[in-house]
Amino acid sequence: MTNDKKNILVTGGSGFIGSHLCEALLKEGRVICMDNFVTSQESNIDHLLKNPDFEFIRHDVNEPIDLEAFPELTRFQVKFQGVQEIYHLACPTSPKKFEQYKMQTLFANSIGMKHVLDLGVRHTSKVLYASTSVVYGPRPADGHSFKEEETGSGDTLSPRACYDEGKRFGETCCATYAQSQGLDVRIARIFRTYGPRMPLYDGQMIPDFITSALDGNNLELYGDETFKTSLVYVSDVVDGMMKLMHAPKDIGPVNIGSEIDIPLMDVAQRIIEMTGSTSKIVFKPALLFMSQLGLPSLSKAKEKLGWIPLVTLDNGLKQTIDYTMANKSLLNLKSIT
């Protein structure tokens, strides 16, 4: 017996963005969430586990992927129906544990990328790779917005090259499989994203700002008052990725982010005001993984996908604050264990 629902694999599916993506994709088909919990949390997908169209498999993307070997996927009939779409998000993204997971980061964008693309070839799947704005290199001195045709620049020997150059190599893998194997690949260049389910006490400044403000502690900004960034809400990112997956073949890379540049100091101040906190802002030495990034040009996303970010910063911060307040005791407990 076949099923008319498509099978969708999300690697890194219990991560911050991945869990929101899995949730949204359940409206389109059956979702296989793959993760090894290196920098993600099981609690992100707890609410999805009872859904008959959702299945979690614990697996390291850096090991070969054979979905038919997982008995829990029998009801998805992968052997006969295959996998129609693959979203590859698996990659450690922990600012404070960046050094600890350097090898896993290197492998996720090379060996893991190969395993995902090989799986795509085997099942003739469409594959979307979650790339990043860092492929463009550092924020440009003239402040121009990055367009997709820019080649970018980077230091192959830098301490964070396993991520920056790793993502560039991942894009090269996608392009090569498309050219040589005819694989249908899409590349989403995702800019700085925030929202519920971001890990706490990990150097991701937005959730740490919120918990500090709620506790009346100093808000620690890793950098100085000149640190600017764009911030796009997670539901907008998920919407952009799904629109990109549904776009015509050979669309090329597409930026998904916000065009609005904002000092992180202003974000911290807004959080203090929105939580009614008496906390102060203090500055800490910059983290290697938290660098100043450029802004995206969204002209291609608007024209080709009909996509723009819809959630305002105030609305996004409110939803993130509400989530943190509702889950604070549980989140604090997890940070200790």
What is the end-to-end distance? 45 Å
Give the CATH topology of the largest domain.
Answer: Rossmann fold
Look at the structure and give the CATH class of the largest domain. Alpha Beta
Q: What gross morphology would you assign? A: globular
What is the CATH architecture term of the largest domain? Answer: 3-Layer(aba) Sandwich
Mean pLDDT: 91
SSE sequence, one letter per element:
EHEEHEHHEHEEHEEEHEEHEHH
Q: Provide the low-confidence segments as ranges.
A: 333-337
How many discrete domains?
2
Strand content: 15-25%
Helical content (DSSP H or I, runs of 4+): 25-40%
Radius of gyration: 19 Å
Number of strands: 13
* Main sheet summary: 7 strands, parallel
Considering the protein shown, what is the CATH homologous superfamily of the largest domain?
NAD(P)-binding Rossmann-like Domain
Number of helical runs?
Answer: 10
Output the structural class: alpha/beta
Could you write a compact summary of the structure shown?
The chain has 337 residues and is α/β, with parallel strands linked by helices. The protein has helices at 16-25, 78-81, 102-108, 111-123, 161-181, 205-215, 234-246, 264-275, 299-305, 313-336, and strands at 6-11, 29-35, 54-58, 85-88, 126-132, 184-190, 193-194, 219-222, 228-229, 232-233, 254-256, 262-263, 281-284. The chain is built from 10 helices and 13 strands.
